[in-house]
Amino acid sequence: MEEIIKTKDIVKLYVMGTEELYALKGVSMTIHKNEYVAIMGPSGSGKSTLMNIIGCLDTPTSGAYDLNGQNVSEMDDNELATVRNKEIGFVFQTFNLLPRSNALHNVELPLIYSGISRSIRIEMAEQALLNVGLQDRMTHKPNELSGGQRQRVAIARALVNNPSIILADEPTGNLDSKTGDEIMELFDNLHSLGNTIILVTHEDFIAEHAHRVIKLRDGLIETDKVTDKGLKYQNKAVVTA
Amino acid sequence: MNFFTEIKEAVIISLNSIRANKVRSFLATLGIVIGIMTVTILQTAIEGINTAFEKSISAVGADVLYIQKFEWFGKDDWDVYRNRRDITWQDYELFSENMNNAESICPTVGSAGLVTYQDFTSENIPVFGTTEEYQKTLGLDVDEGRFFTKRESDGGWGVCVIGYDIKDSFFQGVDPIGKVIQVNGHNFKIIGTYEKMGSMLGLFSLDNRIIIPINKFFKIFGTRRSLTINVKAPTVEALEDTKEEVRSVMKRARRIPIGGKDDFGVNQQEAFKQTYESLTGLIKTIGTAITLLSLIVGSIGIANIMFVSVKERTKEIGIRKAIGAKRVTIMLQFLIEAVTICVVGGIVGLMIAFPLSLVINAVLLPTVMPLWVVVLALVISAFAGIVAGFFPALSASKLDPVDALRYE
Predict the structure, then answer these.
(1) Chain A, nearest residue to B404 by Cα
(2) I need a surface site. Which of A76, B105, B306, B310 has the fewest CB within 10 A?
(3) Average pLDDT value over all residues in chain B
(4) Does residue B155 belong to the interface with chain A, where contact is any CB pair within 8 Å?
(5) Terminal CA-to-CA distance of chain A, rounded, Å?
(6) Residue B147, exposed/middle/buried by CB under 10 A (0-12, 13-18, 19+)?
(7) B106: helix, strand or coil
(8) CA–CA distance, A213 with A39 (Å, rounded to integer)
(9) CB–CB of B323 and A82 under 8 A?
């Protein structure tokens, strides 16, 4: 399978006054197309830092990061913005929708920044909302939507530009368990449609949805295992092949 | 990213944000509103006064020199001019005999008279005595009838030419030509009327005058009044040369030794213009200062509110950056927001200034609002927006997406 993410010895150093803090001490990993990965770890393990670097919101202090064949570890702000726009679909714990814009406009936003013309933009955004089951809520503003619906809008926004990866940071953290399950089903479904999904979480039952779990501790990869679900999926793939 | 889409998106965002913070936006833009209002009203007033001035000044011919005891806008005390010798008929005769390069010359002398026609009487009507050369020298447009001739002037005949207001108030609907009026009890046959001229700078009317032969004037009002000698130069370009000749000829006529000081003034339209320009220059300077001041204060207000807006929307900036907005896009968004607030303020300022200028026009001064003033006002407010928005927009564009997303 095609390599989407390839990191080598990623180090992230924070300097606060005289104190030096290594958030990541050399992380190397490879994630292929259509993988379903959970990155886990207790707070302070470096998982947020890793997520920021994978999501191109931040750059490593040292080490190499190739995203879909591009070396992003040495890109400047503007190039990173373009990569985020084209390659990455973010889903956040707090949804992070624009409060004054309706669902359609929120989903349209990444397309505006890619310079796609209005008519095509609206068509694509409507399709993305349809895919997450919100065709009846397009003109609603975030405060007129339930938590689950808001997260669906955020997922539609993440999907609309056909990114290489979907990067979800505690996507069910602000939802009740029933709604959380529905959102996780949506992710499972998106994976089965061929998307590459990376979940960042500290909840085991969320990580269970993934096919591979990478555990971080103190800025290093502690374990990197294929889950039972992943094994079944692989076997099924072998059987059907 | 398509630049036009970017601008359009930014304008929509900023209008939404203005709508969401109506009171705050209104207060922030107040300085701009006042600034634009001042500059607009000032410009309409100056334009109005200019237009009125141009109209009035044409009554004072550009190619005419006015020799008088007084100097227009003279720098000396009033006494200095008052104590000068009067300009007499003899001065005029000597002067006009020796003056070679003048198109035409006429003397004028004026007083106020009591005018009667049948049952109507009016006091304090300006009565001017002059010669047949008046029409040519000062460019009077005769409307009906004719001006008086040399024979009538020299002979001091009882004939007169009247202005529009006189005709209007004494002869409503009746043809005044051939009618006889009394000036201080003396009979005058009306032989002509002249075209409406309007007023001088809005101060006094030029249409309520009665013009009579100078020899008749002397008989009624006496000869102890100082004359004005009006000299028309061959061309406007020759005015300065003519002025030189006028000075030397007049000196000889008044027997002033060579090198002696003039005891008369040679006045011209230029003096009006200079005084007028220094006056409007002063108004402009003061007005510009007030405008600048209120625009600076206004810009500081906008800058302040933009900093608050950036701070408040840190999270939004983080979201936009995470989704792919570049620095320049964020910068543009906030710059356009500042410009939009200022331009809206400018439009409000204009909307207040326009009716106000109409009120001023009705009660105080003539005002005119040309299109360029409107355009200028909007350009100034947009500029104020760019200046005010620059640093807040820059700080927004420089926000780190990770920090901005974490901001609550």
Answers:
(1) A57
(2) A76
(3) 87
(4) no
(5) 15
(6) buried
(7) strand
(8) 6
(9) no
How many Cβ atoms from other residues are within 10 Å of residue B268's Cβ? Answer: 22
Residues of chain B contacting A78 with CB distance shorter than 8 Å: 326-328
Given a cut of 90, whether residue B108 has pLDDT beyond it is yes
The stretch A164-187 carries a mean pLDDT of: 93
Closest chain B C-alpha to A12 CA, distance in angstroms = 14
Q: Does A120 touch chain B (CB under 8 A)?
A: no
List the one residue out of B334, B237, B345, B252 whose CA is nearest residue B11.
B334
CB–CB contact B1 A115 (8 Å): yes
A148 touches chain B (CB under 8 A): no
**Could you tell me which residues are beta bridge partners of residue B110?**
B128
**Rounded Cα distance, B406 and A92, in Å:** 11
Separation of alpha carbons A118 and A115, rounded Å: 9
Strands A3-16 and A62-67: antiparallel
Q: Judge whether A79 is closer than 8 Å to chain B, CB to CB.
A: no
How far apart are the C-alpha atoms of A152 and A128, rounded to whole Å?
A: 10
| pLDDT value at residue B371 | 87
Contact list in B for residue A164 (CB cut-off 8 A) is none
Local structure of residue B283 (DSSP, 8 states): H
Beta strands (DSSP E) in B239-315 are 265-267
**B321 contacts in A (CB within 8 Å)?**
57, 81, 84
Contact flag B9-A112 (C-beta cutoff 8 Å): yes
Minimal CA separation from B401 to chain A, in Å: 6
- Find the residue in A nearest to B327 (Cα): A78
pLDDT value at B355 more than 60: yes
Look at B324 and A96 and tell me if their CB atoms are within 8 Å.
Answer: no
CA-based nearest residue to B227, from B111, B401, B149: B111
Winning range, highest mean pLDDT, from A174-178, B11-15, B71-75, B257-261: A174-178
Question: How far apart (Å, rounded) are the C-alpha atoms in residues A185 and A174?
Answer: 16
Q: Say what the pLDDT of residue B203 is.
A: 65
Percent of chain B exceeding pLDDT 70 equals 97
pLDDT mean across residues, chain A:
92
Confidence (pTM): 0.70
Rounded to 10°, the helix B22-57/B3-20 angle is: 110
pLDDT digits (tens, 9 = 90+) for B356-405: 888 888 877 777 788 888 898 899 999 999 999 999 999 999 999 999 99
CB of A143 less than 8 A from some CB of B:
no
Q: Please give the Cα distance from B28 to A88 (Å, whole number).
A: 39
